[in-house]
Amino acid sequence: MKLTNEELEVLAILEENHQVSVETIAAMVNTTVENTKEIIEKLESEKIIVSYPALIDWSKVDGKENIVAMIEVKVTPKRGVGFDEVAERIYRFPEVTSLYLMSGAYDLSLTIEGKSMTEIATFVSEKLSTIENVISTTTHFMLKKYKHDGVVFGGGKDTDRRMVVSP
Fold first, then answer.
1. Which domains are delineated in the chain?
2. Has residue 65 got a pLDDT over 70?
């Protein structure tokens, strides 16, 4: 779905702070309160605004789709600081949206967003893998989002598909 600049601005404001009043949003977008209410209702009915706090399904907005990659990183911890120093270097990159210390075969798990696979590949090869103490990486690309923060995406069926068992 192609959105107007006003609609994109409203989405960005709500994504940043879902508690902003409609009057404030209208002033920020330079439109009327009535028009702002109509825009929000439309975005909610089209399931672009999935829930509040505003969880935006950007895959439904033409030109706004991002590629999301989940990257596992194996590192050598530094004496005295462990994984913290390497983690801090990684989370400072603007592409990184989340970073976790994990148990298992890899030490760190991070999520990044980019406009293309090339952009993500460049991040991994030129920024991430060149960090001292990074031994190896494994990259996984998100193909489809089914559920995020407890919200089901894509109009999943709410019907109970379990077989009825009775005596």
1. 5-60 (1.10.10.10), 67-147 (3.30.70.920)
2. yes
